[in-house]
Amino acid sequence: MKYRPDKITVGGIDFEIVYKTMKHYGELDFEARKINISNEIKEEFLFDTIMHEAFHAVCAIAGLSYIIEDAHPELEEAIVRASDNLFFPFFKEHYREFSELFFSE
Ligand SMILES: [Zn+2]
Q1: Which of 39, 56, 70, 88 is spaced 20 to 30 Å from 76 by Cα?
Q2: Which domains are delineated in the chain?
Q3: Looking at residue 104, what is its pLDDT?
């Protein structure tokens, strides 16, 4: 089975996922409720990229993007990358262990 969702829902808001040729891996168009994803990425990297854009959606929906933007234009990206590179690998490892214990039957 291939992982390639056409839509994600964050905080009750649907975001269409559009796969296309593009320079970056992913990009959130919050006003259009759309996430553009490079059609060159797949599997776990695709999953990680969708999680990255979903985190940007979380910041936008919560109104955090405005506050973060005022502090520093690159701060949101740094926070999201801290999640990508530090928190998310930790989460995935522990969630794998957790699900083997509790969902394996
Ligand atoms: Zn980003």
Answers
A1: 39
A2: 7-103 (1.10.10)
A3: 79
